[in-house]
# Entry
Amino acid sequence: MLSDFLTGTGVIASASSESSGTWREEHLIDGNVNTVAHAALDALNPFFQIDFGSKVLVTRAEVVNRVDCCAERFKNAIVTVGNVPGIRSQLSANPQCGPKLDGPYSLGQTAEFICERPLVGRFVTLQLNGAVESLNIGEMRVFGKPPGKD
# Structure
């Protein structure tokens, strides 16, 4: 059975740039699509990264675009899974889960990244590929299971 890892304890969200107040990184995984996580105002390859603290097996990820404004910012997105943490302005070195999604997506629309095969890693990263843009997301959900668990 697959489970949603984001409901577990010890999961940490981070971004390619720090945000505070209304747009904190932890809103990425707070279970509320009405909050917004914000990364990198007009930076190259902005990203959000979820750190599970240990390796997990990932089969897919869902990203819910923000519901209030700025929907056009979510485009040219990739999701990667692996053990290499993100580095500002660089594309992730980890394997990609599913194809790049061109977008843009409408307000509140969910984009689904389905891995061609299950990927194992500690970090799951959502990144705008080759874009100089702000990345604003309502929610990210990662599905899979711990390696070796049925």
